[in-house]
Amino acid sequence: MMYNSRIAGLGKYVPENIVTNDDLSKMMDTNDQWIQERTGIKQRRHIKKGDGNTTAKMGVKAAEIAIERAGITVKDIDMIVFATLSPDYYFPGCGVQVQHLMGMDTIPALDVRNQCSGFIYALATADQFIKTGMYKNVLVIGSENHSGGLDFTTRGRSVSVIFGDGAGAAVLTREEDSNKGVLSSHLHSEGEHALELALEGPSTNKWVPEIIEENPQENIPYYPYMNGQFVFKNAVVRFAEVINEGLAKNDLKTDDIDMLIPHQANLRISQFVQRSFKLSDHQVYNNIQKYGNTTAASIPIALTEAWEEGKVKEGDLVVLAAFGSGFTWASSIIRW
């Protein structure tokens, strides 16, 4: 028997430490107006030294809330799918850390490395395991610790002002009603442009000693690089394509969308997509103003907040969409 999967519980966690645009202006040549005009961001959350947070531990905090809201216990979780670009270690991945920290049985733990599209890729993976009947309850987490690896000088401001830390989680469970839950997922990639948004080193191609020896201070590959205008131009096209693909697959129209949760990459991208689809403010949820871009965590954090605020209700058509490093892009069509 083929099942659908539905989201039974959602949770989020963000560090308590708020970093405003004015705070960043004390570290680099920038200001609140410059940041807001280009990104829409007013503040973000950063892990503070000594607060006990890591990528995995933030994921656990979000997961605990999601599991409680799903009305189950950690012993009911059959699998973990953990999405992040900022794991605590090169290896092992964060998934096994979550399994240990939460005292779960020896269940499988899978790590997904699809950056901004990571949560939707992880959701699609979990959905397939449930659809085939292999597992009943899958914990999906997106969590990021960006702040520890950003260049907080004027040299790095175009990237550093954008990103924040945090985690979101969802419990997917078996649903026998084929008209409810995840209706379809749509995943794409275009590796030709991989280095337009990337962190090249340290890596197995470029270890730390080599970086120090070969690179002048103005070109440091262990900080993220982003070709902002190129990414923006590709993002608005791919967002529209993958949303339309999901709607067409399910014989739906733009008017059928009750809530669009876009990856919180840049408020200007979200606004462009909103205008393209002629959606009202009530049909699109954005919280990048408060949290910045939290990459794989951005969609589950936003989805959790939208649900908490009563903006996602039973029967609603919810569309998730993302674009990011890789390039990768994805959408998920969900009947709540």
The number of domains: 2
Radius of gyration, CA atoms, in whole angstroms:
19 Å
Quick one: CATH class of the largest domain? Alpha Beta
CATH architecture of the largest domain: 3-Layer(aba) Sandwich
Run of helices and strands: EEHHEHEHEHEHEEEHEHEHHHEE
Helix segment count? 11
Question: Number of DSSP strands?
Answer: 13
Keywords:
globular; five-stranded mixed β-sheet; 336 residues; alpha/beta; Peroxisomal Thiolase, Chain A, domain 1; four-stranded mixed β-sheet
Structure description:
α3 crosses α4 and α8 packs parallel to α9. The two termini are 22 Å apart. It is built from 11 helices and 13 strands. The longest helix has 22 residues. Strands 1-7-6-4-5 form a 5-stranded mixed sheet, sandwiched between helices. β12 and β13 form a beta hairpin. The chain has 2 domains: 174 residues, Thiolase/Chalcone synthase (Peroxisomal Thiolase, Chain A, domain 1, 3-Layer(aba) Sandwich), CATH 3.40.47.10; 154 residues, Thiolase/Chalcone synthase (Peroxisomal Thiolase, Chain A, domain 1, 3-Layer(aba) Sandwich), CATH 3.40.47.10. The protein is of the alpha/beta class and 336 residues long. The model has no long low-confidence stretch (mean pLDDT 95).
